[in-house]
Design brief:
Layout: E1 2-3, E2 13-20, E3 27-29, E4 35-43, E5 46-50, E6 53-57, E7 62-67, E8 71-75, E9 81-88
Antiparallel strand pairs: 1-2, 2-9, 3-8, 4-7, 4-9, 5-6, 5-8
Length: 95
Amino acid sequence: MTPLNAVTEETRLVARMIEFPADGVSCATDSCHEGSSLVYVLEGKLQLDAGGMQEVLDTGDCACMESEMALAWSAAGKHRCRILAVTTAGPSAEG
């Protein structure tokens, strides 16, 4: 996970580039914590799992999410996946 902006007490949005390894290694993450988030697929395919719902996003796809549920996400297929994730800053955003 690569942070793309500095996080301070006044930060309202946090941008990160996240890379998922190939072969569907699943990652439960707090990068899309409770609240609003935007995910843009830079490379590969992203598998999103939330509350029993599964969705695959391709390169160039974008998703806006407002949810109280935790997400599990991974690269779909045999290639790595890189995404840009922009989330609202939470108490765990710093650091």
